[in-house]
Amino acid sequence: MNLNLKDTKIIWSIALPILLGTLWDPVVNIIDISIAGHFENENYLASLAYGNNIISNFYWIFGSLGMAITGYTSQKDGENQLNKISEVLITSILFIFTISVLILIFQKPIWILCSLIFNQSSEIEKITTEYFHIKIVGVGPHLIIMILSAWFLGIKKPNVIFRTWTLMGVSHIIIVLLFTNYFNTKLNGIGYATIISQWLSLIYIIIEIPINLKKRNINFTINKLLPKKDIILLGGSFGNLMIRTLLLQTVYLVTTYISSRLGATVLASNGIFLQFIFFSFMTIDGPTHASAPLIGKYIGSKKMTKFKSIYDNALVSAAITGLLFTLTYLIFGKNLINLVTNIEVVRLESYKYIMIISIIPLISVLAFQLDSTFSGMLKTKEMRNTVIYSTIIFLLLTYFLTKFWGNYGLWISHIVFLASRGILLNNYLNKYLKNLE
């Protein structure tokens, strides 16, 4: 293992702004859960988990294009093809804008389909229906922000990402407290706060584009798209990543579905745990995600020694971060649960699973580092295949284990799912490096 302080500092100089910026997302989610957890009954908390899980599918599925954009942009930076850096920006924005318009047009049938699948109680359906139709207005700006963040990461401008997501987080918190405390808007207030903060942040990050292009002396032409062969390359990568992300979302949709079958209390409890898990994932993803543009750059410039050094140093940083989260959840799990809800039945249900949930951050490290490595390399076929195999394992385990162990079986299946992703991707990486020798 090639460990050195210099590369670790480079990784964290990119990781820290991204980490501090994107951590606002889980922080906001936990605050929203805390607010909903103090409404008069658990239906609001269940509706929040239900609605957020549906909306987050759009971010996961179409936001996956960002991994390809970061890899492509950083490789072109390494190859010094600066014109391609601006062309991929315009091409990506145009694609995501089109997707966003289609989502708005088809929001009613999307909701009807989700309603039929999950078949919740009439009270939960009523609350979630209003919440869903408010939040979906912010899907477009949020997707564009995600794509632009990936592009800024590709050109190694993490401070723009930090400022954008900080603006979104801070404005959301201020607005949600105003709406829920003074206007008594309940769950709808959380939805309104979300979309207002998303539009504000979109305006800011768009302003940053010409400023940063000028600093890099990159010509910006709004009507200049990527050449056909590059669009095909990115399209193929996006196709692989979309399949991968659809399968990842299948895992979490199955989790939500099984949780709902186990009752509103389990659904609310697992909603809390998913936010804790996503919080740890986003933190672990700081050093791993920061390694992607560096790996892409060194692949583009064919500097394999630097590639290996960045990989090793990022992996160690991520492992230390994962271990800290595991210890935190083991020691302070009950305190964290009590912080986000005062509903006693949800607290008691959640206490049962602290031990098994605590293992997840550490188990996830290898999968996260290798995801970032392969996205930087633009080796998306391997990423796709890994998740296909791992999802099959998850579904089989979930089917059998939940019959015997209920919610315990569900979380055991998650742990095996994460571990298998890391093991399979590691095999692909070893084969790739062996072929270079």
Structure notes:
- It is built from 17 helices and no strands.
- It is mainly alpha-helical.
- It is globular, with a radius of gyration of 21 Å.
- The model has no long low-confidence stretch (mean pLDDT 90).
Radius of gyration: 21 Å
Enumerate the spans where pLDDT stays under 50 for 5 or more consecutive residues.
Answer: none
| Structural category | mainly alpha
> Can you tell me the overall shape?
globular
Q: N-to-C SSE series?
A: HHHHHHHHHHHHHHHHH
Overall helicity:
over 70%
Number of beta-strand segments: 0
Total helical segments? 17
Q: What percent of residues are in strands?
A: under 5%
Number of structural units classed as domains: 1
What is the topology?
Elements: H1 5-22, H2 24-36, H3 42-63, H4 65-78, H5 82-105, H6 107-118, H7 122-135, H8 139-154, H9 158-182, H10 186-215, H11 228-261, H12 264-300, H13 304-340, H14 344-351, H15 354-377, H16 380-405, H17 407-436
Quick overview of this protein structure:
The chain is mainly alpha-helical and 437 residues long. The longest helix has 37 residues.
